[in-house]
Specification:
Length: about 200
């Protein structure tokens, strides 16, 4: 049996081995004009493999680039576009600059910590209280994805205080009540909307 694992490794596997064989054959054609005609035919077949990408502006350009890559840049024809240089594929890609610094609670993420720091700078009032409630609800959802059994209101309030370095002083009893009222209100609204939807569908 002739297994693919014993065959030559494909440069661009998404086009398949038959396309690679067609490219290899085009490289053996001695007449330049015939090679060019063969290359155009191969491009047409390659394009038919991905019809949903035809509307992309540089789709044809990419096909010709891929043809050159599969031919190991040895296909001497009249290319309609400037081809990429072999040296460009031998360079290591630039490293992505990741932000440094530790995150106190990874399950909340860096943005939540930054928002808590900004909330700590705000003046006391309804807007600040509402922002804290939104942050708390979001944190509870995030924590529930990691540990549903420990996603309590007390835990969320404790984490908010720690992340704000004690600058957000919250009345725990009132805050916990707000959480429950907010959740109960959402559940009631969801139930009413569901009943309305069922009545309409019937």
């Amino acid at each position: 049996m002739d297994y693919n694992s014993n065959r030559k490794k494909l440069v661009l596997p998404e086009y398949g081995r038959h396309i690679q064989k067609m490219v290899d054959y085009a490289c053996t054609i001695e007449d330049r004009e015939e090679r060019t005609k063969c290359a155009k035919a191969i491009i047409a077949v390659m394009g038919n493999l991905f019809p949903h990408l035809r509307d992309i502006s540089d789709f044809k350009h990419k096909l010709w680039d891929h043809l050159a890559i599969m031919a190991d840049f040895k296909l001497d024809i009249d290319y309609p576009y400037d081809l990429p240089q072999r040296e460009n594929f031998q360079e290591n890609p630039e490293q992505i600059p990741y932000k440094q610094g530790n995150i106190t609670y990874k399950h909340y993420g860096r943005l939540v910590e930054q928002m808590i720091h900004e909330a700590a700078k705000m003046e006391d009032g309804p807007l600040k209280r509402h922002l804290i409630m939104l942050l708390g609800n979001h944190m509870k959802k995030s924590l529930s994805n990691w540990n549903k059994d420990n996603a309590s209101d007390e835990r969320i309030l404790s984490d908010i205080k720690r992340l704000s370095k004690g600058k957000l002083q919250i009345d725990e009893q009132a805050r916990i009540a707000d959480f429950r009222e907010h959740q109960a209100s959402n559940n009631n609204n969801h139930g009413r909307n569901r009943k309305k939807h069922l009545r309409k569908s019937n």
